[in-house]
Design goal:
The chain has helices at 8-32, 42-124, 127-135, 139-147, 151-159, 163-175. The chain is mainly alpha-helical and 181 residues long.
Length: 181
Protein backbone atom coordinates (compact mmCIF):
# COMPACT_ATOMS: atom_id res chain seq x y z
CA UNK A 1 0.00 0.00 0.00
CA UNK A 2 1.43 3.39 -0.99
CA UNK A 3 1.80 6.11 1.64
CA UNK A 4 0.01 8.47 -0.77
CA UNK A 5 -3.35 6.80 -0.26
CA UNK A 6 -5.81 8.70 1.95
CA UNK A 7 -6.13 5.88 4.47
CA UNK A 8 -2.35 5.42 4.83
CA UNK A 9 -1.58 9.08 5.54
CA UNK A 10 -2.99 9.07 9.13
CA UNK A 11 -0.95 5.95 9.90
CA UNK A 12 2.24 7.50 8.52
CA UNK A 13 1.58 10.69 10.49
CA UNK A 14 1.04 8.70 13.68
CA UNK A 15 4.33 6.78 13.18
CA UNK A 16 6.23 10.02 12.52
CA UNK A 17 4.62 11.57 15.59
CA UNK A 18 5.67 8.60 17.70
CA UNK A 19 9.28 8.85 16.47
CA UNK A 20 9.37 12.62 16.98
CA UNK A 21 7.84 12.43 20.45
CA UNK A 22 10.16 9.62 21.47
CA UNK A 23 13.24 11.63 20.51
CA UNK A 24 11.94 14.81 22.14
CA UNK A 25 11.08 12.97 25.33
CA UNK A 26 14.66 11.73 25.55
CA UNK A 27 15.94 15.25 25.03
CA UNK A 28 13.48 16.54 27.61
CA UNK A 29 14.49 13.89 30.13
CA UNK A 30 18.14 14.76 29.65
CA UNK A 31 17.26 18.38 30.36
CA UNK A 32 15.29 17.45 33.43
CA UNK A 33 18.28 15.89 35.15
CA UNK A 34 20.93 18.58 35.31
CA UNK A 35 23.61 18.26 37.91
CA UNK A 36 23.12 20.31 41.03
CA UNK A 37 26.24 22.42 40.39
CA UNK A 38 25.05 23.32 36.88
CA UNK A 39 22.92 26.22 38.13
CA UNK A 40 24.43 29.24 39.83
CA UNK A 41 21.16 30.35 41.40
CA UNK A 42 17.70 29.20 42.36
CA UNK A 43 16.29 31.55 39.74
CA UNK A 44 18.26 29.81 36.99
CA UNK A 45 16.98 26.45 38.18
CA UNK A 46 13.38 27.79 38.27
CA UNK A 47 13.77 29.17 34.73
CA UNK A 48 15.20 25.86 33.56
CA UNK A 49 12.22 23.95 35.02
CA UNK A 50 9.85 26.44 33.42
CA UNK A 51 11.52 25.96 30.02
CA UNK A 52 11.22 22.18 30.34
CA UNK A 53 7.55 22.49 31.31
CA UNK A 54 6.93 24.78 28.32
CA UNK A 55 8.73 22.32 26.03
CA UNK A 56 6.63 19.44 27.35
CA UNK A 57 3.50 21.54 26.91
CA UNK A 58 4.50 22.32 23.32
CA UNK A 59 5.21 18.64 22.67
CA UNK A 60 1.77 17.73 24.04
CA UNK A 61 0.14 20.39 21.87
CA UNK A 62 2.10 19.13 18.86
CA UNK A 63 0.91 15.58 19.59
CA UNK A 64 -2.68 16.79 19.81
CA UNK A 65 -2.33 18.74 16.56
CA UNK A 66 -0.82 15.81 14.68
CA UNK A 67 -3.53 13.49 15.97
CA UNK A 68 -6.22 16.02 15.05
CA UNK A 69 -4.66 16.43 11.60
CA UNK A 70 -4.69 12.66 11.13
CA UNK A 71 -8.33 12.51 12.24
CA UNK A 72 -9.27 15.33 9.86
CA UNK A 73 -7.38 13.68 7.00
CA UNK A 74 -9.28 10.46 7.64
CA UNK A 75 -12.59 12.37 7.64
CA UNK A 76 -11.58 14.15 4.42
CA UNK A 77 -10.86 10.79 2.79
CA UNK A 78 -14.24 9.44 3.94
CA UNK A 79 -16.02 12.53 2.63
CA UNK A 80 -14.20 12.27 -0.71
CA UNK A 81 -15.23 8.62 -0.97
CA UNK A 82 -18.87 9.49 -0.19
CA UNK A 83 -18.84 12.33 -2.74
CA UNK A 84 -17.41 10.00 -5.37
CA UNK A 85 -20.16 7.49 -4.59
CA UNK A 86 -22.82 10.22 -4.88
CA UNK A 87 -21.35 11.37 -8.21
CA UNK A 88 -21.37 7.78 -9.47
CA UNK A 89 -24.99 7.29 -8.41
CA UNK A 90 -26.03 10.61 -10.00
CA UNK A 91 -24.39 9.61 -13.27
CA UNK A 92 -26.12 6.25 -13.08
CA UNK A 93 -29.49 7.90 -12.42
CA UNK A 94 -28.95 10.33 -15.30
CA UNK A 95 -28.21 7.41 -17.64
CA UNK A 96 -31.38 5.65 -16.45
CA UNK A 97 -33.41 8.85 -16.94
CA UNK A 98 -32.13 9.18 -20.52
CA UNK A 99 -32.91 5.52 -21.20
CA UNK A 100 -36.44 5.99 -19.85
CA UNK A 101 -36.95 9.11 -21.97
CA UNK A 102 -35.79 7.25 -25.07
CA UNK A 103 -38.10 4.35 -24.26
CA UNK A 104 -41.00 6.71 -23.60
CA UNK A 105 -40.41 8.52 -26.90
CA UNK A 106 -40.26 5.19 -28.69
CA UNK A 107 -43.53 4.06 -27.09
CA UNK A 108 -45.19 7.36 -27.94
CA UNK A 109 -44.05 6.91 -31.53
CA UNK A 110 -45.50 3.39 -31.61
CA UNK A 111 -48.75 4.62 -30.03
CA UNK A 112 -48.99 7.45 -32.55
CA UNK A 113 -48.35 5.01 -35.36
CA UNK A 114 -51.23 2.83 -34.14
CA UNK A 115 -53.52 5.85 -33.83
CA UNK A 116 -52.60 6.95 -37.36
CA UNK A 117 -53.39 3.45 -38.67
CA UNK A 118 -56.77 3.46 -36.88
CA UNK A 119 -57.48 6.94 -38.26
CA UNK A 120 -56.88 5.67 -41.81
CA UNK A 121 -59.18 2.70 -41.17
CA UNK A 122 -61.97 4.92 -39.80
CA UNK A 123 -61.53 7.40 -42.67
CA UNK A 124 -62.15 4.60 -45.17
CA UNK A 125 -65.29 3.41 -43.33
CA UNK A 126 -68.79 4.76 -43.72
CA UNK A 127 -68.93 7.85 -41.44
CA UNK A 128 -71.97 6.57 -39.48
CA UNK A 129 -70.38 3.15 -38.86
CA UNK A 130 -67.10 4.83 -37.89
CA UNK A 131 -69.01 7.14 -35.50
CA UNK A 132 -70.71 4.11 -33.92
CA UNK A 133 -67.33 2.37 -33.46
CA UNK A 134 -65.65 5.51 -32.09
CA UNK A 135 -68.50 6.13 -29.64
CA UNK A 136 -67.48 2.96 -27.77
CA UNK A 137 -63.85 4.09 -27.40
CA UNK A 138 -62.27 6.05 -24.57
CA UNK A 139 -62.83 9.75 -25.27
CA UNK A 140 -59.11 10.58 -25.26
CA UNK A 141 -58.38 7.79 -27.75
CA UNK A 142 -61.30 8.92 -29.90
CA UNK A 143 -60.01 12.51 -29.87
CA UNK A 144 -56.50 11.34 -30.80
CA UNK A 145 -57.87 9.28 -33.70
CA UNK A 146 -60.01 12.14 -34.99
CA UNK A 147 -57.05 14.54 -34.65
CA UNK A 148 -55.03 12.24 -36.93
CA UNK A 149 -57.72 12.33 -39.65
CA UNK A 150 -58.32 14.80 -42.41
CA UNK A 151 -60.63 17.53 -41.05
CA UNK A 152 -63.43 16.69 -43.50
CA UNK A 153 -63.47 12.98 -42.53
CA UNK A 154 -63.30 13.82 -38.79
CA UNK A 155 -66.24 16.25 -39.19
CA UNK A 156 -68.41 13.58 -40.86
CA UNK A 157 -67.68 11.12 -38.03
CA UNK A 158 -68.31 13.75 -35.33
CA UNK A 159 -71.62 14.47 -37.01
CA UNK A 160 -72.61 10.83 -36.48
CA UNK A 161 -71.88 10.93 -32.70
CA UNK A 162 -74.29 12.06 -29.99
CA UNK A 163 -74.16 15.74 -29.13
CA UNK A 164 -72.59 15.05 -25.71
CA UNK A 165 -69.88 12.79 -27.10
CA UNK A 166 -69.09 15.21 -29.92
CA UNK A 167 -68.80 18.07 -27.40
CA UNK A 168 -66.53 16.09 -25.04
CA UNK A 169 -64.30 14.91 -27.88
CA UNK A 170 -64.12 18.47 -29.23
CA UNK A 171 -63.05 19.76 -25.78
CA UNK A 172 -60.36 17.10 -25.59
CA UNK A 173 -59.30 17.92 -29.13
CA UNK A 174 -58.71 21.54 -28.08
CA UNK A 175 -56.48 20.55 -25.16
CA UNK A 176 -54.34 18.14 -27.17
CA UNK A 177 -50.82 19.26 -28.10
CA UNK A 178 -50.44 20.29 -31.72
CA UNK A 179 -48.81 17.69 -33.93
CA UNK A 180 -45.75 18.61 -35.99
CA UNK A 181 -47.15 17.07 -39.20
Amino acid sequence: MSSDTPTARPLVLAVLLHIAIGSRTLIGSELEQPSSNEFSSVEERRLHVRIIEDQNSLIDEKKALVLEEARLEKLRAEIDAKLAEIDRKLAEMEAQRKALEALSEKEQGVDQERIDNLAKIYENMDPLLAAEAISDLDLEVAAAILASMKPRSAAKILDGLSREQAAEISKLFLTMPATSE
